[in-house]
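Hi all, long-time lurker, first post. I run a small reading group and we've been trying to get comfortable going from sequence to structure in the token notation. Rather than ask abstract questions, I figured I'd post a concrete chain and ask someone more experienced to write out its structure so we can walk through it together at our next meeting. Sequence below, copied exactly:
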Amino acid sequence: MSKRSITVIPGDGIGPSIIDAALQILDHAGCDFHYDYADAGLMALEKHGELLPQATLDLIAKNKITLKGPLTTPVGGGFTSINVSLRKLFNLYANVRPVVSFEGTKSRFENIDIITIRENTEGMYSGAGQKRSDDNASAEAMSIITREGAERIVVFAYELARNEGRKKVTIVHKANILKSTSGLFLDVAREVAKRYPDIETNEMIVDAACMNLVMYPERFDVIVTTNLFGDILSDLCAGLVGGLGMAPGANIGKDVAIFEAVHGSAPDIAGQNIANPCSVILASIQMLEHLGMQDKARQIREAVRKTIAEGKTVTRDLGGTASTTEFTQAIIANL
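-- Answer (accepted) --
Happy to help. Here is the structure in token form:
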């Protein structure tokens, strides 16, 4: 039986080192993948003259599954966000951001277990219609919500909740003010919710959701919302469990899925072997679950949990002094 091939994009800054950590752990867990490496971001720009070479896009399409480190999009005109481009090119309409408490992390809460499901291709974040006036005195952009896009993401959220045995979905919106776009999203979400009587549905205006997440995070289970709100809320949720270093993300479409560290490339600490690789390790766990490899996913998650709880060999953001390499080896030892 041939090995399952996955596309690996090491990324920029700390990306190569944390991706390497995740791959070592996958190998030691016996996942038996074949890795096809591809360039994107600043590394690709230097080597190939473009941020997203066609060869990389071809590998993503071929293998269907990609594990990706953080990428840097250069600041300034002429450069489109690489992540936004990938979502549009492969119609990765669902962004899945789970946050789970790990004993031993620096966080204010315990027992957090929230999944934010963010519509990934529409809304204000899509960048449609962006322009400035010639005199730079005004700027505008469009937010477009479609019934198809709204229904697709809300169905995804309820199906995920049902499949994972979760009890509640919170629909987050701003329909009281954004009556057209957010209003349509809420209307469609209400229609979809009626198809899932076994799951409790809650509605919350986005500003109230932010306040309640900070004060009463235990009230949330699955959150589903539009693109921009989801971008903000998912980072807020990461703050509940110790920061972006503990927050993975998945971009899922009909045919292709990309799993990633959601934080930036951290060029200030690149090459120092001190980065926490947990975000991309947890993303690889999401990847395993997507592939139906639940036992391997559980095995790696428990090794990460045990290593952090022991607190003896963890990176500095987790309160320790270990290098990326030492932390990775400690997780491997606990597999």
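A couple of things your group might point at:
The longest strand covers residues 94-100.
The radius of gyration is 20 Å.
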